[in-house]
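The following record pairs a protein chain with its ligand, farnesyl diphosphate.
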Amino acid sequence: MSSEKRAPQHVAIIMDGNGRWATSRGWPRLVGHRKGAERVKEIVRCAPDLGVKWLTIYAFSTENWKRSTEEVLGLMGLFSRYIEREADRLSAEGVRMRFIGDRSRLDDRLQRLMAGIETRTANNTRLNLTVAINYGGRDEIIRAGRKIACEVAEGRLDPADVTEATVSAMLDTADIPDPDLVIRTSGETRVSNFLLWQAAYAEYEFTETLWPDFSPAELERILSRFGGRDRRFGGVAPA
Ligand code: FPP
């Protein structure tokens, strides 16, 4: 693999710290999520100028249902409003928006909005924005395993022919390249069930910054550090 400096094509972000950002100011957690949604807009806007072609953000995990009803409903409302209010701008700026995760548990209106913006932006190519909602890496792998089991049971697939490519093609990210870089904000250094299969060779960057304070300038700094890394994908550096 080349060690030539380049921007990562696919950046995935675990946007953590909204709750702490708000509670440290004596505000409700939802205020932090609202501020976090503003950051999403800003980062989506600057990403293509920084050479990023694919941006995947973790908005709601399969574990996040354990939060209070108020917080869960507040987050779902934010997702709907983001789609409704940003649709024109995303379309005009060449952003293709997609979603990964199990949508079946989301309310019908949100599911319709998600399907609508996916269709509306399907031909855009400047930035591929993927939002993970009700997403969990293990859940995604289980769902892929079930699809493979059905193919085998119905005689369309020989178990001996199951390869990495077969599994990748059954994941929610079937049409999306693997991330080069995963960033997690807020000082936590866990993977938290995010892109478990896809991030097998990704670099990780952890920053203390809480997501509502994460800026395009910090993203740019992280990307330039990444540009200096030598990614060998299990091989050895060229002489
Ligand atoms: C983690 O912070 C953040 C979330 C669970 C929600 C992420 C959602 C957004 C950034 C807002 C909207 C997104 C879109 C796509 C419009 P946390 O609440 O776990 O923070 P804490 O660890 O400080 O409690």
